[in-house]
Specification:
By secondary structure, this protein is of the alpha/beta class. A 9-stranded mixed sheet has the order 6-5-4-7-8-9-10-11-12, covered by helices on one side. A 3-stranded mixed sheet has the order 1-3-2, with helices on one face. The longest helix has 29 residues. It is elongated.
């Protein structure tokens, strides 16, 4: 072997690589374990609208274990995502002693159900949180079977656009377990749309009603309490305290 320089050179290279690897491992172990590299600052990339400072201070300490290198970013992210208003979190290290946190809060666009403290965000996701009374009062109310919030929210947006043509605004939308729709307008009138019908689609029935709305409904001294659009070739109106009449 001693008379084979190329072999000696290869062995020397391997020894150098092994020594370098051992040195890197030792350095990594030291960096992870050294107590002199603590995280001294947690910075939020943007101001938080709903999440309170006290909630963050209560959630973070248990997750901030270890130093700058050993701290588990996933643990920090998970701890913050347990807070009611937080939808998602991104965390990154900023040398030498800082964590930068980017938070996406829920943006409430509607109330969901009644008396359960649940809201619907702009993605159609249901979450539980407590907005201010002013904010809560401005949100429409949506009802529907479990898992239907995205569809109900989408349909609500469509109805808002549809009723603009008669200067009315929906404030409540209900999808029943039988998949029948009811819209409540800001003026208190309930519009019973029923289910989709192959021979008389919901959109066709609603459009036909809105075409005659200005003359048939808007000019009435007393607005009807309920309008029933479930009929394939017409609709019925009922004033509070009266029977039905077509």
């Amino acid at each position: 072997m001693w008379n084979k320089p190329y072999l000696l050179s290869a062995i020397a290279d391997l020894l150098i690589l092994a020594a370098s690897a051992a040195l890197l491992v030792a350095a990594a172990v030291w960096l992870v374990g050294v107590p002199s590299l603590p995280v001294r600052q947690v910075v939020f990339a943007e101001p938080l609208q709903h999440t309170r400072r006290l909630e963050i201070e209560q959630a973070l300490p248990a997750a901030l274990k270890g130093n700058f290198f050993s701290l588990n970013l996933e643990t920090v992210r998970s701890a913050l995502e347990t807070l009611p208003w937080i939808r998602s979190v991104e965390v990154r290290r900023v040398w030498p002693a800082k964590l930068e946190v980017k938070v996406e809060e829920h943006r409430p666009v509607a109330r969901w159900g009644e008396g359960r403290g649940e809201l619907v965000n702009s993605f159609g996701e249901v979450f539980a949180a407590a907005p201010s009374e002013t904010e809560l009062a401005a949100l429409p109310l949506l009802f529907g079977p479990q898992g239907t919030a995205p569809d109900v929210l989408k349909r609500f947006g469509e109805f808002v656009g549809t009723f603009k043509v008669v200067n009315e605004r929906p404030v409540q939308l209900t999808l029943s377990p039988r998949l029948a729709w009811q819209v409540k307008l800001e003026n208190g009138m309930l519009v019973d749309l029923g289910r989709e019908q192959p021979k008389a689609p919901l959109g066709v029935r609603l459009e036909r009603f809105l075409q005659v709305y200005p003359e048939t409904v808007a000019k009435r001294a007393i607005r009807p309490a309920v309008v029933d659009l479930r009929y394939p070739n017409g609709f019925a109106m009922r004033v509070a305290g009266e029977g039905k009449g077509k």
